[in-house]
Design brief:
- The structure is a single chain.
- With 363 residues, the protein is of the alpha/beta class.
- The chain has one domain: Metal-dependent hydrolases (TIM Barrel), CATH 3.20.20.140.
- The strands form three sheets. A five-stranded parallel β-sheet has the order 6-7-8-9-10. A three-stranded parallel β-sheet has the order 3-4-5.
- Helix 5 runs parallel beside helix 6.
- The chain is globular.
- The N terminus is likely disordered.
Amino acid sequence: MDHRAMDRRHFLAGVGVTALCGYIAATMPALSAAAAPQRKIITVAGRRMRVVDIHAHCMVPRVAEIVRGTNIDPGNFNANQVLNPMRTPERLAAMDARGIDVAVLSINAYWWYDANRDLAARIVRTHDEGVAATCKEHPDRFVGLTSVALQHPDLAAEQLEYAVKTLGFRGASVGGRIAGEVPSTETYDPFWRKAQELQVPVFMHPNKADGLVNETIFEGRGDLGNIIGNPAETTLFLSKLIFDGTLDRFPGLKICGSHGGGYLPSYFGRTEVACDVRPNANCTSKKPAREYLRNQIMADSMVFTDEGLRHLVAEMGASQVVYGSDMPFNWPDTIDLVANASYLSPAEKEAILGGNLIRLLKL
């Protein structure tokens, strides 16, 4: 049996009875005051910071019941491998230990992009109701993003409107590609138009660049599908939104690329000159590429080094960088990296740690 198929079977078997990787169950008890660890307080220049995390993974266990017996049942289930357990009380304890005040919950992997319209509608509604229940239980600690069925752009627009207006969600989460296609063409405009109309951001999370390159190229040491593939997929997604004119058609859009925006900010000089120096570039973008990077595109802080953060802010501006943890994965945390950065002013530190998201998400 293919090991990935086995992982998917274990995944669906597990989510029916437990909550994996912060997978949310509305029945989970709140963390009691007696059990809660000391909450870390983040300060800058003597002022308490409100830290907001844009990059917090979760999943709703009961979605297993929705997909059972469908074309995305075990064996065809295109989900991530089984992940480390983290229930809601564990997540709150981990947030307290780091100094995170608010986590923005979203469901990733986007395996439901293979679902037909009816099934996709049921999956996303189940996800949204599960996330909404947890946000309602802990309204001071969680807000949600809907992870829409982007393969059906008009449905995705309806899902976004319902999530924002009815459930109180603050935006959407999307993957980098749908059936191999980056959603930068006019086919996907109904969704982008709705995001602009509602004035909510879209958080983009990659899926290991599956199908983007030769299927075996990332095999072997180093987990390169994640380490190289994820930022490569994010870079492709953001670049196409620039060059295909998506950001021109919807100048009010705010897109946040996970993992530091992929490789886009780190090698932006090449992107910046592409339309001028490459005769076959065929760009439809109307403005210099840097204008999109400094206005419509944002990135989380997951670059992990002092120099990486300095460069990210230098290229994008502090107004375009936000804190992300990738919880519950065990990446290095960047709160102290931001708070201790000698090259950032107190105002810039406050913006990155929470201020930018407080304004963007209307917290």
